[in-house]
Amino acid sequence: MVTSAGVEVLGPFSTPVNYDADLEKTISLDNYDVRDPRITPKNFPPRRAGEAKLDIYLICFGKPIATRKVNAELKNMKMRPAELLEVLPWAKEHPDFQREFPIVVAGTVWIDHSLTRSRRSTPVKPDKNQNSDRYMPCLWGLRDQRALNLNLLGATFEEAVNKEWQPFCRFAAVQLRQGSKAPGE
Questions:
Q1: Would you call 43 exposed, middle or buried from its count of C-beta atoms within 10 A (0-12, 13-18, 19+)?
Q2: If DSSP codes are grouped into helix, strand and coil, which group holds residue 168?
Q3: Domain ranges of the chain
Q4: pTM of this prediction?
Q5: Computed over its alpha carbons, how large is the radius of gyration of the chain?
Q6: Which of 6, 10, 13, 26 qualifies as a FRET site for 51, CA 20 to 30 Å off?
Q7: 29 contacts 66 by C-beta, under 8 angstroms
Q8: How far is it, in rounded angstroms, from Cα 93 to Cα 118?
Q9: pLDDT profile of the chain (185 residues), mean per 10
């Protein structure tokens, strides 16, 4: 389906999600040919608990678009960016989509705080304005392989929200349920 604003929407894809699932096991069962070793439960802890049945959508804006604008457009569509534990079960059932185009998992961001330590190696309290690399998971592939990688957004909050995505990227999204809110509300 293409909306009146020219946004391509694929889905819904009904997907059972277990937020309590072990991330390592979930990824290993998906048989990715390439996987970023920094995608671990420590770096990507679950943000929700329990089980759910969600409708996953793939959204293509068809033009270069900043992360901040993606989030605003999804909110206008009564959707939110999907999280990693929501997308992985879907990707296992639909492995060929990521061979056609990159799929950005914009509902999950890892901030690598290893760059925010002082010379004394004392941890510094994370701050959105500090220089800490921010990464977002991305599914992609070729004809004969699938990959789960991290895409560098930038070293500051401003760089991350203003990162411009290619027009061919798809963003995994979830329809907001009655009474639920988009991130940041």
A1: middle
A2: coil
A3: 8-175
A4: 0.85
A5: 16
A6: 10
A7: no
A8: 45
A9: 84 95 92 94 93 96 95 95 96 95 95 59 48 90 93 86 93 80 45
